[in-house]
Design a protein that fits this description.
127 residues; PH-domain like; 4-stranded antiparallel beta sheet; 3-stranded antiparallel beta sheet; 3 helices; 7 strands
Length: 127
């Protein structure tokens, strides 16, 4: 399968909005990837069609430097909730993420209702 193109990428930022951290975010057409660490690296990947909702948080300290954080709730079993922390243009990033989520759901013909009772579905698979 061909690698999907990167739509957006940034780093988590620290004091004064500078990107001096080892956390990188990449938004692809079909997934979001969060890479953390320097010596011990961790790469988290969440398929966009599994994202349920997002919340934009902009505390005063982040707003001063033009930053914001996005809280994401997903139907992913290993990562039911994650944050895209302290990124520039967080309003645009959240809108971009929401558009990609809807686009990916349409492409895969998936609706949010399919995740509503996921525990029950897992029990059904065991039988």
């Amino acid at each position: 399968m061909a690698e999907s193109k990167i739509i957006w990428q940034d780093r988590k930022r620290i004091i004064f909005g500078l990107p001096w951290t080892f956390t990188k975010y990449k938004l692809y057409e079909d997934k979001i990837q969060i890479c953390t660490g320097f010596l011990n690296k961790k790469e988290e990947e969440i398929r966009l069609y599994r994202i349920m909702d997002t919340t934009l948080e902009k505390p005063l300290g982040q707003r001063i430097f033009g930053l914001g954080s996005i809280k994401v709730n997903s139907a992913d079993k290993t990562t039911p909730q994650f944050y895209i922390l302290r990124v520039k243009n967080s309003d645009k990033v959240r809108d971009m993420l929401s558009e990609q989520v809807e686009s990916e759901r349409e492409r895969r013909r998936v609706s949010g209702r399919e995740f509503m009772n996921s525990d029950y579905d897992d029990e059904m698979d065991i039988e």
